[in-house]
Amino acid sequence: MKYLIANWKMNSVDIDVWEQEFINVVSSQNNFPKSDEVKLIVCLNLYDYTVFSKKIKNSKNEIFNKISLFTQDVSQYDDGAFTGQISSKFLKKVGVEGSIIGHSELRENGDTENIVFEKGLRLNEQGLSNIFCIGEGLEILENNKKKPFLLNQLQTFCKDNISPGLLAYEPIWAIGSGKEADSENISSAVSIILDFFEEKKIDCPILYGGSVSKSNIEEIISIPGIDGCLVGNSSLDGEQFAIIASKIKS
Ligand code: PEP
Fold it and tell me: Is this prediction's pTM over 0.85?
């Protein structure tokens, strides 16, 4: 099974248009991957969730109606006076399947390793899944500190029965830059992660994220150990996202 995840961030997406564009591509291809070959997940805000989940329910397209919906963040707290935050209990109540945690854009806004771990715990308590993001910044890469940096992110998260549902390796310098990481860089991260997973007996798909597009998806998905991709900008357009999905083979 491969995985393709859309992260819409705070962009406004016209969901009617997105659905139509997506379905046009699916219908025009005889061998579009089946839902048991490529799992599609869209990570969106809760308003879009209510609109998109109704569309999924009403759609007769069997690829579209198997899309899973996640949010992009969850509160580290359980309940209480935390204005503006959304708890895992609430996500569970509305029917969201899980959330991204540890995205670098949230880490840059104050999410520490411990906060990301607490968010993982909250999701776990509600039986919800997580897409755990890790990745180094340019300075860490250039100073040859990538391995200890990634290991620290993994070690702080993978404890007390918490482990990633999906692990996304997203080097910060590749996110939204239009310049994806090269295969050597991705492979070295995969081997750090796989060694760690082996030691901890964790079985979890590894995804890459950072400027994935319809032009580079085939190269990235063919890197050994990569089970899928997390896509930001190129997921905002239903046609682009479906073309990327069509190029992923199990
Ligand atoms: C992301 O936001 O996680 C991401 C990978 O974005 P982009 O594809 O735009 O680099």
Answer: yes
